[in-house]
Amino acid sequence: FERADLVVVVGSRFMDSISPEPSWTGRGPRFVFINIDAADLTPPREALIALRADARQALELLAEAVRPRCVFTEERATSLKQWAQNQIDAVSPQASYVRALRDALPEDGIFVNELTQVGYLSRVAFQVYGPNTYIGPGYQGTLGYGFPPALGAAVGGNGRRVVSITGDGGFGWNLQELATARKYDLPVTLVVFNDGHFGNVRAIQKRVFGLDEAFGTNLENPDFMTLAKAFRVPGVRVDSPDGLNAAVKTSLQEGGPVLIEAKVGEMPSPWPLLRLQPLPGVKPPDSGPNPLPARAPA
Predict the structure, then answer these.
(1) Where are the alpha helices (DSSP H) in 117-198?
(2) Is 60 exceeded by the pLDDT of residue 1?
(3) Phi, psi at residue 105, to the nearest 5°?
(4) Is a pLDDT exceeding 80 seen at residue 166?
(5) Distance CA 210, CA 216 (A)
(6) From CA 111, how far away is CA 164, in angstroms rounded?
(7) Cis omega (within 30 of 0) on the bond before 29?
């Protein structure tokens, strides 16, 4: 955004995912907003032009009005895409877990994201190949929401496998729904990333208050393999991306639910890649020089 003259925002609320502020201020680039909802065109956003319109119709008309030109060569575009991928890969081990999940799940499989460290990075790193195959929390940020929608997706998915990821903290909100998954024999692979904490709250406390140890973030978890057994759900424990990849692939052979516990430790912050404006106290990953010019030509 710092390098753009004009930004066209289509069908987005364009609000920050943490606080009720615009994703980017009016300082710098000029913004054109296209949205069918009038409420998403108003302050605190700062628009040069605000167009209330259906996205498809507006874009078709815009395509007719704008003179085509080649901005990037194929080589330049490839370089930019690699630069972006390098930023994702620098957030490790989350990036490796995202790749493991994507590789294991069929292209038409359904992925249900959650508020967990791997889930945050999945917002920008999980490749989606078709409509209705990715379900996320949107702006709500509701911890623990993910497993119940995954069951609904399994009911409506015509037999397609659903992979639902959650943290150990978020899973505590709805772990009893293992009974529903078992009762209706739903094709859900539930991955619980277990670090023993509310990981994001711990990270925020350490960053904001400079604490060596966060307060009230450690969890008293059940033994997840015993929990799975209690609900007569197959369970497996892994401790690496390769192990997760193999376990998810194996789960595809099951007709009903499977629980996978992935043991993980403290992870680096993915938030510099998720917020358009810098996050105070968090250094973006070092992934080499930005291949874009300092300012795009007008």
Answers:
(1) 117-125, 147-156, 168-171, 178-183
(2) yes
(3) -90, 130
(4) yes
(5) 15
(6) 6
(7) no
Q: What is the pLDDT of residue 35?
A: 97
Return the bridge partners of 188, or none.
Answer: 162
Q: Which residue has the tokens 């710098």?
A: 28
Alpha carbon distance, N-terminus to C-terminus of the chain: 14
C-alpha distances out from residue 136 to 64, 89, 143, 239, 247, Å: 33, 21, 11, 25, 22
What integer is the mean pLDDT of 213-217? 84
Residue 140 is predicted with a pLDDT of: 75
Nearest by Cα to 126 from 145, 151, 109: 109
Q: What share of the chain is helix, strand, coil (3-state, %, to 5)?
A: 35, 15, 50
Residues in the chain: 298
Statement: residue 297 has pLDDT above 60: no
Both structure tokens of 44: 């605190």
Q: How far apart are CA 5 and CA 141, in angstroms?
A: 31
Candidates 128, 145, 94; CA nearest to 266 is 94
Q: In what order do the strands lie in the sheet with 110-112?
A: 134-135, 110-112, 162-167, 188-194, 258-263, 235-238
Q: What percent of the chain has pLDDT over 70?
A: 91
Q: How far is CA 3 from CA 29, 153, 160, 247, 297, in A?
A: 8, 40, 42, 43, 10
Query: What does DSSP assign to residue 283?
Result: P
- The pLDDT of residue 207: 81
Given this model, what pLDDT does residue 298 score? Answer: 45
Radius of gyration of the chain, Cα coordinates, nearest whole angstrom: 21
| Residues of the chain above pLDDT 90, percent | 65
- Cα atoms in the Cβ-side hemisphere of radius 13 Å centred on 135: 22
